[in-house]
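Render this sequence as a predicted structure.
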Amino acid sequence: MAISASMVKELREMTGAGMMDCKKALTNTDGDMDKAVDYLRENGLAKAEKKAGRIAAEGIVKTNISADGTKASIVEVNSETDFVAKNEKFQDFVGAVAAQVNASETVDLDTFMEEKWAADPSKTVKEELASMIATIGENMNIRRFEKISCDDGIVVDYIHAGGKIGVLVAAKTDNKGDEVQECLKNVAMQVAAMNPKYLSSGDVSEEYKEKEKEVLLAQAKNDPKNENKPDEIIEKMILGRLNKELKEVCLLEQIYVKAENKESVAKYVEAVAKSQGCSLEVTKFIRFETGEGLEKKNEDFAAEVAAQL
């Protein structure tokens, strides 16, 4: 298929690789964006810090936790501009959505949109959203929500940068004191900062491991330094790199960012549990980042004004 300039631009922004490398990757993969990303990674051309899903949409993330701390919700509502995202009326609406999600039995977004709006049962959630759009004069979207509960423990939240990132952390514990809550809040901050994909290595799918091994194998074989190394040595190298990578993507095995002695998150939680004489086990986390995987329209403000005139 023909490779367009916009495809090359998109891949370059996703991976940080050079323009010609991106064009070559797309050509060799018949324009398949996911395969092109893998091609660049396998050949060591993609920058590790670049993420495949660009974050560009505006809006905020809000959470809601029940009075007893056992149930919580997290929602993302998008707006067209950051200006509206900071609007008090918009923020109050998102807070009300989070509260209704937490109180509702619904787990499906489409069903939730047809629910009666808690503050005014004469309208549905969808109709209240339409009313907000009409009032504020900008398109908005209740994009997603998730709920978490921990009847034998507690849920804590953390909101970063005014709602750009929201995190919920659930833990099984027999102590809901301030020290335990502070510990879990620190874990939530770790999730916000380090963006783990899994709770522990035991949760990592074999499919993920196999795909990463394929990428690491291709990287190793494309490295001239490994040209004369036997396959069994390369295999050991790959396993070592995979284990290192798993420590980076699994929350409990990550290095706790506030630790001075390079201890893991799991060791930090264990230490707090021991000091408080209680049981404490992190069981789940949810992390939302505003606009994750969405692409904002590339607008030329001067052209927009000219068009309106």
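Summary. Residues 231-249 form the longest helix (19 residues). The radius of gyration is 23 Å.
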